[in-house]
Design goal:
Distance between the termini: 66 Å
Number of strands: 23
Low-confidence stretches: none
Number of helices: 17
Helix content: 25-40%
Strand order of the largest sheet: 17-18-16-15-21-22-23
Bound molecules: adenosine-5'-diphosphate
Mean pLDDT: 93
Length: about 500
């Protein structure tokens, strides 16, 4: 059989990709998914649309490549994490819109929970910081707000799933209700060791009967129903998007790390079979497991990264395209002392300050558009350094290099500045579609399409390596300036 099929269901689009035996992407199809914002801070999607869009992209891809089920060795699935769907076991119909990971509707509930005595136990068991981001409070919300939902859930008539579970349930015609440990670790209901925890279920008042079975990220889970893709295909890989990207960057071992530069930044450091505890309020999470032992990672996120570039384009109108930011930033030798802290929605790790708001500081009469554009790109690198320093503190060792991907990783200015400000090499792979690739790796390893992790690791190729070249004193001087800009944005009224 010639290919692995990857289904990559993101927040803004569903994509399908085919990979050949050398791990090369030989085709991709994508289609947008709509988001709705019914109230400030609320974000919803239509789970039915997610499924239909995803299966349509897969069908189109196979048609375009004249491939059928018999050409596909296995399906890998990767997905936007935490997004919550609850549906009726009999009819297969969702009982409410999918609550998207970004949705803040349960923020008050979570703030109260964070102040309660249960808070320390939740963090100790799950590795997560209590926040509306994770699935548990979203499930709770649906059970509380849809008539009869609580009773139906207790009777076993309702099922919960993240998007992986929802897609697989549909793909198998309702035969499989499963998730993998990397997705389950984002629900706030799983003990990081890999089981649904009774105490957590009690705290959130969620019936166990709703929950999917947890399976390995790489393993034969079942088969797609013949009707969907013209024949049965093994479903053999499942991982949340950031964990899939970690696998797609061939980071299968402790000490390897990647940073994805998209709307925000997600940095993950693989810690192998060691269950990490973050002292710096990063998240401890499950990495995709490719063998029998559970695998772990430390994760840190920056809320606004590429989104700062979008803001320059869409709100300030000082650039026409995101790509243009590179040449404009490089047209000046420095920001001339300007710092831009894009704390549009507060600050994440290590500050965790929901009240902070963005600032532009150090502006003089000589400041022009190029300095501001440059300051926006530099802010992405400074925020990443803050995450990496926390990770190194948690891991007790320093990173050798950082592998990068995501939409903004194509920006050479940003990557060079990142290498400088981190004082570490930045390595960009040839294939930056690491999420879909990672899901393919997991499916290919499980089905024998690829023999070993070593074989898969051998596919990884650097496209470009950025070495640090800024003198250390200059770098520290700049970083000190960043820290004081952050301090100012945290105290807007002083
Ligand atoms: P996501 O998966 O979060 O939707 P992507 O990985 O597609 O994001 O990256 C898109 C983000 O990257 C946008 O916020 C955009 O502003 C930013 N971006 C895209 N190209 C560039 C570029 N050349 N330089 C800087 N930022 C960029």
């Amino acid at each position: 059989m010639a290919f692995i099929l990857s289904l990559d269901e993101g927040t803004t689009s569903a994509r399908a990709a085919l990979y050949d035996a050398e791990g090369r992407n030989i085709g991709m199809e994508s289609a947008p998914i709509a988001c709705r914002y019914p109230q400030p801070g609320w974000v919803e999607q239509d789970a039915g649309e997610i499924w239909r869009t995803q299966i349509e992209t897969a069908r189109r891809l196979l048609e375009r490549h004249r491939a059928g089920a018999s050409d596909i060795a296995g399906i890998g699935i990767t997905n936007q994490r935490e997004t919550t769907v609850v549906w009726d076991r009999q009819s297969g119909r969702p009982i409410a819109p999918a609550i998207v990971w970004q949705c803040r509707r349960t923020a008050d509930f979570c703030a109260e929970l964070a102040r309660s005595p249960a808070s320390a136990e939740i963090t100790r068991k799950t590795g997560l910081v209590i926040d509306a981001y994770f699935s548990a409070s979203k499930i709770r919300w649906i059970l509380d707000h849809v008539p009869d939902a609580k009773a139906r859930a207790r009777a076993g008539d309702l099922l919960f799933g993240n998007i992986d579970t929802w897609l697989i349930w549909n793909l198998t015609g309702g035969a499989l209700h499963i998730t993998d440990s990397s997705n389950a670790s984002r629900t706030m209901l799983m003990d990081l060791d890999g089981y649904w925890d009774d105490d957590l279920l009690r705290i959130f008042d969620i019936p166990r009967a709703m929950l999917p079975r947890i399976v390995p990220s790489s393993g034969l889970a079942g088969h797609s129903a013949a009707i969907h893709l013209d024949g049965e295909i093994p479903i053999a890989g499942i991982a949340g998007d950031q964990q899939a990207a970690l696998a797609g960057q061939a980071c299968f071992r402790a000490g390897l790390s990647k940073n994805t530069y998209g709307t925000g930044c997600f940095a993950l450091l693989h810690t192998g079979a060691h269950r990490p505890v973050s002292r710096n309020r990063l998240l401890a999470t499950r990495a995709a497991d490719t063998g029998t032992a559970p695998q772990f990672a430390i994760e840190g996120s920056v809320f606004v990264a590429g989104a700062a570039v979008q803001w320059l384009r869409d709100e300030l109108g000082i650039i026409r395209t995101a790509g243009e930011s590179e040449a404009i930033a490089a047209s000046v030798p420095s920001t001339g002392g300007v710092y831009f802290v894009p704390a549009f929605v507060g600050l994440g790790a290590p500050h965790w300050d929901p009240v902070a708001r963005g600032i532009l500081s150090g502006i003089s009469r000589a400041t022009g558009r190029a300095h501001i554009v440059r300051a926006a790109l530099e802010s992405i690198a400074y925020q990443t350094r803050e995450l990496v320093e926390c990770m190194e503190g948690d891991a007790g060792e320093s990173l050798r290099e950082l592998r990068v991907d995501g939409g903004a990783a194509v920006n050479d200015f940003l990557m060079q500045f990142q290498a400088d400000i981190l004082g570490k090499p930045i390595v960009r792979p040839v294939d930056v579609e690491t999420t879909a690739l990672g899901a393919a790796y997991l499916a290919g390893l499980a089905t024998g399409f690829w023999r070993s992790v070593e074989e898969v690791e051998s596919f990884w190729r650097a496209e470009r390596r950025f070495e640090p070249r800024m003198p250390q004193a200059e770098c520290e001087h700049l970083y000190t300036g960043w820290r004081s800009a952050v301090a100012r944005c945290r105290a807007p009224n002083q």
